[in-house]
Design a protein that fits this description.
Layout lengths: L2 H11 L5 H16 L1 E11 L5 E11 L10 E3 L5 H8 L3 E3 L16 H6 L6 E7 L5 E14 L5 E3 L4 H8 L2 H28 L1
Antiparallel strand pairs: 1-2, 1-6, 2-3, 4-5, 5-6, 6-7
Helix pairs in contact: 1-2
Length: 199
């Protein structure tokens, strides 16, 4: 079974439309399939005129350190990796996050590593697109696990090109699913608000 088929089957099994739960399940499957130690799913959030201006982290996982469940935001611009992916719609694969070439516009925010004593090494970041091709989210996979050394310690390697090719086929399918779940979640929230006002 392909990763895409696995994810579609996973979503079909869901009885509720809790976007956070679904995105956490998707992230766990993506990380397992790509041997990523950590990852984050961001969803693009609109401002009043319905244009997207920031990404909201809605699912964050890390096998080494406990990550806070609080949400954080990243502006959609060219200065951060997630913002760059959301702005350009491009896939970004970085072998060494602490040695990003000076000629690119984005940089790596080291604050999480410093706060939690973690070491981010490699990253594969890709956009989630709706059927119109608009970027509605970003997935960041961190630290590709290459295996273990003779002492049983985890070894890391860059994300292979095969993983880059694999996510190309997922961008629109996952984006459409995320958009659908996000819309249903929003409708359910509005229904609850109306029911409370009428009560």
């Amino acid at each position: 079974m392909s990763l895409l088929e696995d994810l579609v089957e996973l979503l079909e099994e869901q009885q509720d439309f809790d976007l956070d739960k679904v995105l956490n399940l998707i992230l766990a499957r993506l990380r397992r399939a790509t041997a990523a130690e950590a990852g984050t799913v961001f969803v693009a959030r609109p401002v009043a005129d319905r244009t997207f201006n920031h990404l909201e982290a809605v699912a964050t996982q890390n096998d080494v350190v406990d990550v806070p469940s609080e949400r954080f935001h990243v502006p959609i611009d060219l200065s951060s990796i997630g913002g760059y992916v959301a702005s350009t719609g491009e896939i970004v694969e970085i072998d060494d996050l602490y040695n990003i070439p000076a000629e690119v516009s984005y940089n790596f925010n080291e604050s999480f590593d410093q706060k939690h004593g973690y070491k981010s090494l490699s990253m594969l970041a890709f956009p989630l697109k709706n059927v119109q091709g608009q970027v509605i989210g970003v997935v960041q996979l961190i630290n590709h696990i290459g295996g273990t050394d003779e002492n049983g310690n985890t070894t890391y390697t860059p994300f292979p090109l095969s993983e880059v090719d694999r996510v190309k086929g997922l961008m629109t399918m996952l984006g459409a699913l995320v958009e659908r779940y996000d819309l249903v979640t929003e409708i359910q929230s509005l229904r609850r608000q109306v029911a409370q006002q009428n009560a």
